[in-house]
Structure formats: C-alpha cells, structure tokens
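Hey team,

Filing this mostly as a record. A colleague (T.K.) asked me to run one chain through the structure pipeline before their review meeting, and I want the input and output archived in the tracker in case anyone asks later how it was produced. No errors, nothing strange. Just documentation.

Input sequence:
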Amino acid sequence: MQPSGVGARTLLLSLLLPWPGTGQFLVIGPAHPVVGHVFKEVVFSCRLSPSMDAQGMEVRWFRDQPPFVIHMYQNGQDNTDLQRKEYHGRTEFLGENITQGIVGLRLRGIQVSDEGKYGCMFQTFTFFNEAHFPLQVTGTGSSPHIHLKGGEAHGIRLLCTSSGWYPEPRVGWTDSSGQDLLPLSVIKHQMVNGLFHVETTIVVLTHSEGNVSCFIHNPLLDIKKQARLSVADDLFPKIPVWNKLLYAAVAIMAFFLIGAAFYFWRQHKTKSILNEELERRKLLGEEGLKFAQSYAEAVTLDQNTAHPYLQISENKKSVRGSDVFRDLPSCSKRFDNLVCVLGHQIFFKGRHYWEVSVKEKIRWTLGIWKDSVHRQGELQISPEFGFWALGLNRGNDYQAFGNPRVTLYLEEFPEIVGIFLDFEAGRVSFYNVTNLSHIYTFRHRFRGALRPFFYPGPPHAGQNGRPLTILPVNHVQHVTYRRFSV
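Output structure:
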C-alpha cells in the first residue's frame, strides 16, 4: 500500500523538475539513527535548507518498505484521512518553528513493530523533497531475579529470570572476579509484543566461595543489569557429626521399610509404563496417522473471529494474510492484535482430526485454542494460557509453542499437516502427512471448550502469499494409499 504522493509521484516529479532552482530546497532529517525506548515516546525532526517558511506546505511523515503515511500536515492543520490505523492517537505534529522550516513529529507508545525506516516529505505546488532515517527500538527489561531451584548431586541449581528486553540480550553468569561461568541452560523467548523473556540456570558447587552474579546485557544501549548472590556457608551448611550418625541410623531403618513397599510399587509402575508405551506407539508413524485419520471431520473458518488483516475464502476453507486492513466492526469475538482466525467447530469431548495444506508457505502456525481465552490486546502464546500449537518461521525453523519453545528438526518439510485432538486422553498431536510421520504431541488435562486455530503469516511481499487451506474430509487420503505405504 502506497500513500498518495509517495512512490510513483516521487519518481515522476524528480524527473520533471530541475535542480537546483528558485523555490527548491533540501530536506535534512536526523543525522544518526533515532533510538526509541519501548512504551515511551520519541521525536523525529526534519528541517529545510535553506531555511524558509513551511506553513503553506504539505508535510508528510511515512514508513518505508512498504511505504504508508503515519501523519500528514496539510492546509495548516492535521489530516488523518491517509493515516495508518495503528498510528491513530499516537502521533503529534510539532510546528512551533515551522516558519523557519523546522518541524517535528512525536510518536508515543513505542512498540517493537515500530522499528524500521521512516521519512519526512515537504511539498509545494511546484516542488517536493524528502529525507529518510531509521528508528531503532530498544527496551531494558526488569532487574534479574535469582531463585533457588533445588539441590543437585554436588551443589545447588540457581535460576535467573528477567523480561522486557529488546533487541535480543546477552545473558550470562560471572564469579567474584568477574570471570564468565558456564551456564547449565539459556532460554530466550520472544513474546507476542516482540520483547524477550530470558531464563538461565547454573549449578553452584558445594566447595564454591565468594559471590555468583547473573547479568542481562542490552547490546544497543550497552546497559547491563545484574543480580548477585553470596555463596555463604549457610547456603551449604555443615552438618555436625552426631547429626550425621542420627541420619544414618534413620536411613538404615527406613531402608527396610521402604524396600518392601518399593517392590510392589515397581511392579505397578512397570505395568503403567507398558500401558503408556502402547498408547504412545499408537500415535507414531503410519499406524498413528491412520488411527488419527479415522476421526477426520469437516472444519471451517469462523470469519467473525478473523483479524482485519486476514482474507477468508467464500467456502470458509482458506485463509491468507493481506497488506490491506479491512474496516470491520470490533467485537469481543474478533482478534484485534494477533493476526489469526479460529475454526467454527467447538470441541468439548471426543477425538477430532483435520488436515491443512501449508504448501509453498514460509510462515504459519496451526493448533488448538481454548475458547474462553480473551482475544483482545497482548496474548501469551503457550499452553499455560490456553494455546497448543506448532508452526514454521521461515527456512526450517519449525517450533512447538511450549514454555519454553521446542525447536523441531524435520527430515522432510510438510506440505500437509494433520492435527489430532484426543480430548479425554489430553493430547494434541501433529503429523507430517507428506511423509507419514509424527511431528510432536502436547499433553494437557483439558477443561472447557477448544477450537481449531489458524495463523497464515504475513504476505512477505508475495513470498508467503499462498493460503492455509483446510482439506475436505473426502480428500483426507488414508495411509494405505500413500507413497510410503507400499
């Protein structure tokens, strides 16, 4: 989508008008990238050279790639006719020095999605010019917190957490001398609002001394926040000798009591493991897919839940992302932030299976949504918040949206994905129908209604233009007719 006056008209006027000449000018924008902090505000500034009165000019502020208007000043006042919807109420034109050719734009409530290239344009009846500059978004998150997570064989495991960082921060541990320590794990999860939540663990050995620190570092601002824990004797208390003897005596007595109980427990546990393994094998490979396909049923899209950036086919079987924001009435059923749509079917019990074509798509997400979860504002994508899904984020970056997310390595990219919900068993399984293989299974004790979930991803300049298409039941071919069933 291109705003009027940006794009083709820019090229045409630049070819027709001479340079330099009377009434012409340069537009000078920020000399360095503008840095904006999330949730705060930033001011863009542009000026004319040579200095001249710009009160009678049209001034536009716009985004590049693709270009669209975020604020327009025309005929001495603001004009919001072409302003992009997500910028409504967030911009303020600053014209105190417009008689000297100096203007500004205040942008409030900075979001990660605001990051990118911007421009400002001045236009008269006979000439125009513009300047371009980047906006870099950054966020310094909460102070890290260190938690004791329990004992290990030779020490204690510590967990350090923090949220609200952007861009992706550096995470680590150091000792008293500032030397880096090797972490046990590091997890960086990008939330729906684009900010990062980080978690890292480390095992502190019983013979350790001094302090241990966890730090989170913002590379753009070069700001570091850290938490420090003193590894004192009371973290690893020394047990008196008489206490050790008492513990040993109690342990010997308990050993004989536990021994008999353990024998019977082990017999019961072995039987349970065997039963669970049989159930698990039902889900795997061709046999698991064939079992799931026997519960195939018709699924359609509920257009009343679709985000305004989505296009739903007339038969309600296909959905694709769009650059056009449809003017739809807002309602509690419709997603207003997460660009997705739900299936019309509602599941309270039983087994249900459907297949979706993801052919030639570079980004998509499919799964199950808890119907009682609200659909407005920021949403946390994880099972804890009523969302069980699997998706692709370009290339071969397949992920199961758990907490933390699980990276999946697939031997063959799926063109058709099968989703199987077993409500009573508490399982949502995903299959690569292309090579008849099981991809991933979520386990959860479901409560309340569930609905199919579809996220087709943005168009990405046509690279992701193909829709997600729900296959009809009579097109769900059984395993015995697939190429690997021979």
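Quick notes for T.K.: Residues 1-20, 478-486 have pLDDT under 50 and may be disordered. Helices lie at 8-16, 241-283, 285-293.
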